[in-house]
Amino acid sequence: MVYVLLSIRQNIWLWPVGFLTSAIFILVFFNSKLYATMLLQVYYLVISVYGWYYWKYGNKTKEGEEQVVSTKFIPGKMIIVSVVCAFVLEYPIYWLLKTYTDSPYPVWDSVTTTLSIVATWMLARKYIENWIVWIVTDAIAVSLYFYMKLYTTTGLFLAYTILAIVGYFEWKKELNAKEISKK
Predict the structure, then answer these.
(1) Lower CB density within 10 Å: C or N end of the chain?
(2) Rounded-to-10 torsion of CA 27, 28, 34, 37
(3) The pTM is what?
(4) Neighbour tally for 23: CB within 10 Å
């Protein structure tokens, strides 16, 4: 929850918190046999380092005295790249789960994993559309975890879904304010 709240507030400390929570979730998803989701947590460890670095040193614009990485809309070409990457990643993840693991739900495990990879990369780049991808991903995860009787995790992901909606509107409000100040 802290990670998502820090994301909404665009606080750079979300990345160390994300690193820590991902390390814990590796064990949760391994024990639940959701192997792709478990490996996703390893990706989160890596992207947390990247996100921290990018938010601290990457593509900055000057706002007052402070240099910040700006929230932005994803460029049209990057939308296409993101969708293609999601489709390209989904099938091999599904195939690996179906072929080499005892994952009870390889389709949903691979879909949520693929969407999460894309959404986290978008968050690291501060694209507002990351929230839309998170809303879809978290809603799917709520159903999956409920069906698997992971009720605490279901509740957590239900809260994530609600917070993703809040995050989208908070970032949108900031982008609208920037547009108004440019005029």
Answers:
(1) C
(2) -80
(3) 0.84
(4) 14
